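Sanity check

After download, print the first record. It should look like this:
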Amino acid sequence: MLQAQLEDGRLILLAAHRKEQIHDFKKQRFLCPACRKSVIIRAGKKLIPHFAHEQIHDCELNRTGESLYHMRGKLQLFRWLTKQGYTVKLEQCLKDSARRPDLLLRTAGGKELAIEYQCAAISDEELLRRNEAYERNGIVPIWILGGNRLKRTSTYMLDLPKREQRFLTQYKQNMQLQMLYYCSDSKTFCNVQHILLTGKKQTVGQFFFRPLPNLLFPHLFQVLPQNVEETHKVWQSIQARAVARPLTYAPASIKRWVMRLYDAGFLLHDFPLSILQPVEAQYQMSVPPYIWQTDLWLEQLNVLPVMGSVSLNRLKYVCRKWEAATRPFAVPISTHPAESYMQRLCQLGWFGQINADTFVKKKALSLF
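Expected structure tokens:
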């Protein structure tokens, strides 16, 4: 832990003091802010000055398993925000909870933000507990993942498994989804924006690396320029490979779906890539786009005559079996994937939207 209490109740942040002062502090007794047990000072040439429990026991701050990478990043972010004039507290205990966000920030307008710098894996249950505690206290959580968790695989691609997709966020209604990373070694933020989910861990996105000294806090939530042509080209390439991939290692649910297509007289490669369209709301689905989108064409859209209409509620009903049980905590559920998909088909001229719930077919799309 970066700070502890003297017996008179004063909180001491060791990293804010000089070597001589830290040496003098070693003569005094410090207590853990969470469990009130004795802690000792750890400091050295290669260590960030911090406190550690004298004995191993069950304490919330012990259970966090804080690494040097995490501790250094938390301190860097604290100093960065403080220099910008924000009121920031380290490891502040919430009023009705034992939760201690890494940083608790108060804006000029009085809004409180809990900034969590998450460098290690965390369970769904723990993530839910933390966010519920923040919600009860009227605090907005902002999760920044450690740069050690960024798995970039090419210019426009990263590995983003379902467990990491929980941290997809949308800080403002007019923003697209993004992932936010910070590396305490290089002191660099990375915004991954313009994200196109494929339904697997392979994800398309644009990476924006910016040094900490060059940024202000609001810059983290700005929409950055998109290279639409390149990102969509990469997405289409991934979908093409996915459709052509052998089913040897596919989940049982997908194998059953392919067999259903076969029984209906179709093969997966019979479906043109033109009916597969990226939608931002893909995070709401448990299967890749080529599964649920071809399902819509098979059951609803392909059999519809030109100038025939279909309701959005009907399409949502068809998609129910593919919806995901868990979704990102910081993305408001607003647009259904089927609605996003149909709006995309309208942009391409295949359908027109009559009202909020009705779409009319403008031209036929042959599946052969």
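If your output differs, re-run the checksum step. Summary of this record's structure: The chain has ten helices and 17 strands.
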